[in-house]
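Our collaborator T.R. sent over the components below with a one-line note: 'Predict the complex.' Nothing else. No constraints on interfaces, no templates requested, no preferences about which chain binds where. So this is a plain run: every listed entity goes in together, and whatever single assembly comes back becomes the starting point for the next discussion.
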Amino acid sequence: MELCVRLDRVSKRHGTTTAVNQVSLEIQRGEFFSLLGPSGSGKTTLLRLIAGLDFPDQGHIYIQNTLVNAQPPDQRPVNLVFQHYALFPHLSVYDNVAFGLKMRRQSSKKIQSAVGKMLELVRLQGKERRFPNDLSGGEQQRVALARALVNEPVVVLLDEPLAALDQQLRQSMHGELKRLQQELHSTFICVTHQQDEALMLSDRLAVMSAGTVLQVGTPQELYHTPHSTTVADFIGLSNTVTGVIAGGEGEICWMRKEGLPPFKVPRPVHPISSERVTVMIRPEQLAIGCGSSTSVSENSIPGIVEKTVFNGNEIFCHVRLSTDVLWVVRMPSSTFRTQLLAIGQPVQVEWLIQDGIIFPVHGVS
Amino acid sequence: MAHPGRDHLPGSRRIVNRLLPIQSPFPIRVALLLSLLFWGICFLLPLALMFLVSLISRGPYGGLEWTWTGENYVRLADPLVIGIFLKSFLYASGTTIVCALLGFPLAYCIARSSRAWQQWLLVLVMIPFWTNFLVRTYAWVLIFRADGVINGFVKFLGWTGDPIPLLFTDFSVFVGLVYGYLPFMVLPLVAALERISIHLEEAARDLCATRFRMFWHVVIPLSKPGWVAGAVLVFIPSLGAFITPYLLGGGQSLMIGTLIQQEFLVARDWPFGAALSFGLMGTILVLWGWLGRKSTEQAAG
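Returned assembly:
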């Protein structure tokens, strides 16, 4: 694969706060790459550094193996889709999309055919003469996309591209974004705080927090093998319990925690200095059982149903395992199950040992 | 009956309703009516009186003689008067253009500075208004005259010749006009520029626009309301200005404002002065209408 964007220990301060701290990333050509993190984690700053709207205090930014640290935005082969689109209100849809080509002094013939093609691609034919303020949110979004894509940039940068749209529109735009990226074989770098969006769209993603990259990987890697509890918490729901590893044979150890019966966890891959560890299990990997038919590869812990949350296609059952451990079990909804999970009902929470993920606990607790 | 309550309204309300047939609460309508009345009496009435004056003759001793005549308007076609009109329009246009060129960078800096700075910079722009305009114009006399600040400085640098003639020239009038009306260009421009999202500028830069083309294609067109307001606020008062050409231009530099003032106070020819005023007003209105039609044509085409 061809390297498209490379960040080498890039830092950026805003006043006294460090917005981006020693970030290194490599983004391949043709990739849909997402930067996922809570607001204030530095992901938008990182995007602006790549676009050239901000300049790094330290480190190097390469686009197609060219150092672009000092290049102004008009000379970089990247285009940004702004969070609130930033469409030019005094220009028609056509002129908005044609802006970049006009600035690069392309021939009007070329502009006409490129803009026409692009408007067709984002399904806005017939709206050329309209002005941005006369368009719906979804249409504005597509104009913003077309305005960036028509320049055939090496990298398309998207800043929370779907944040301003309502839920239904957002889902249809998911497909649209992916389709555009694949049809144009272009590299997309997308900033988002919506984890479902990032998981669905991305080939790879980076989870950011407080200006640093916590983990980079495919959606599956990040969801199933997070490197830290922060990543696990940020991507999907997670149930955790912190306890002490105590003996065991082979690939499996015993874990003890006050108030819970001992249960089995996979042996940590890397030797862990401290004995205290946190085990994390995803809500959908848990099941409610009767406790009679547990095999050797399963754990079963008794608990009491505290509440159930029903959202149509799923039930989230909150089960209290001990005074300080409350876990959520996620399951497909059915009338039968709903009846079974009355509040106060004693149940068994069961899961496969291998689904538990172990994190070392740092510091004193 | 369609409006059962209407017949029972007290008389005063009925009158107000009839005079101002708009859908607003009664107290607001009363307030509107009073303000209309105020403007009618204080603005339209004097204007109407002056229009009457422009249609009568001057008495032998500078009084008013109530015989109707159109002669005052015929006198407007005098080449001397037309020359002064043309010169005034030239000055006013020049003042507007220079104010726009000087005002835009200043307005842009103010609009793009931080909130705290912005307040201080705006205060700086408005500080001149705290003093009388006449006093400020006299200050320019001190700067420009033969033994004034500029000539003193030139002398200090070693100039031994005659003092440079600055006061009572077209140049000094022009500087005075630009100085006097620059804030009227800056303030509406700041308001207009402030409303342009910084993201639009960034988008332009991101779309391969150089700094200059970003201004040309995005910032300047989007701040058009500010340009228009500023141009009107500078052009019209500088067209009718009389203190500046009077004090800084002396006898050499006659503009319409000074001419009108002279007709009223020196020549005591009120009817001709009034006709000059209406000639000026008419010209501005015609110009305005023409510009307005042109801009709507542009928007439509």
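Summary for T.R.: Chain A touches chain B through 24 residues (CB under 8 Å).
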